[in-house]
Prior knowledge:
- The structure is a single chain.
- By secondary structure, the chain is mostly helical.
- Helix content is 68%, strand content 0%.
Amino acid sequence: MKIWDLPTRLYHWLQALLFALLALSGFLGTGPHEWFGLALATLVTWRVLWGFFGSETSRFHQFLRSPKTVISYLKGEHSHHGVGHNPAGGWMVITLLSLILAQCFVGLSMGGYLDPYVHDDSLLYDMDLLIFLHATFAYLLLACVVLHLSAITIYNLRGKSLVKAMFTGKQPKLVSTVRVFFRSNARAGFLLATIGGLVSVFLYPSFT
């Protein structure tokens, strides 16, 4: 059964690649770290909007569950038989997206990309605070990635290949009577191009 559309799968792997490049360039102090950050900021903004206007399994309302449901799921008291993210996985998506957005915002502030849009007395000019936040978010993201990879490993040991599904978009063993609707790839492409254009327009003064 198909559960993931192409835009969501592309986002997942491009996010993983850019995060790895950002982590390496950031901790080693080499490479075009800022350009990787700008690319990730554009990408994650696209994913957030796709969470409202995209395919069913990509929408936030489809996979967000109450904290009580998440706790019950982790205790093994709640079974997940639906399509898409399980209750715990859904909140991991939100956590990662929130941290990435915060990290990108801090990085843009550090790089001076937001200077034309903030007051001179703003906390966004407190470089010590920005450096502290940038480092803190980096380590929190690494911790989330480790937790995410650990969960994937556990699911693989249980015979559920989440990695393969994110490549093919299909979960072969999943049988559901619910019909999943998918938005067109053209819509996703238009949305990404629009976001990329807006990022270029608003941040252009800092490029020159």
